[in-house]
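Predict structure. Chain length: 203.
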Amino acid sequence: MGKLVLVRHGQSQWNLENRFTGWIDVPITENGAQEAHRAGRELKGIAFDLAFASALKRARQTLDILLQETGRTGIPVETDQALNERHYGDLQGLNKAETAEKFGAEQVHVWRRSYDVKPPNGESLKDTAARTLPYFKEKILPAAAAGRNVLVSAHGNSLRAIVMFLDKLSPEQIVKVEIGTCRPLIYEIGPKGEVLKKTAAAA
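Prediction complete.
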């Protein structure tokens, strides 16, 4: 039995500025770093064997802090854009409140919270899952099923896709799921890749 720990990156600069970030490579804020240190302290009891992160710096910066806090800086780390945040297309860089004024709050809500509706030139959650889950099933889940402790630092929507798969949620259920920054989700994975137990680290 291995542990699979999913962590959304700490607050980024554009989270702070209330902008659609997507694939824009912005760093975490000082507050985001503090969130990551706190999460790392919560995870100190887990001896991680390997880690994965998206190709975006906010996920890797968060992972670096998590590994420092848990004393596991020497373990193998793999980064891949399969774990990147959902691509928000033409909305990237725009302030969310201003976007709601321009397109209407209802339309923006549909873009943000629908499973299969994509913003202009961007990805839906369904699209994100289509690139995230094959990588997860090939690289990450087998490691946990083999009894290794695995840490994943990624994003709200790529992690939502993974949670949807692990928790067997419907598209209607997953769009209501919120994944907070640096609030670790801890899964215990059995030898067939099945979920034996799920817990959330303390707030």
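Summary: The longest strand covers residues 2-8.
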